[in-house]
Amino acid sequence: MIRIPSTKKRAKAEEKLNLTPIMDAVFIFIFFLLMSASFLKIYEIASDIPIISDQEPPKDKKDPLALTLTAETNKLVFSRGVPSRAFKTFNRAQGGEFNFEEIHQFLVDVKKGHVDEDTIIFEPSGDLTYEEIVNIMDAVRMLNRTDDAIYKKNKDGIDEKVKDLFSKIIFSNLMS
Question: Is residue 155 assigned to a domain?
Answer without folding.
Answer: yes
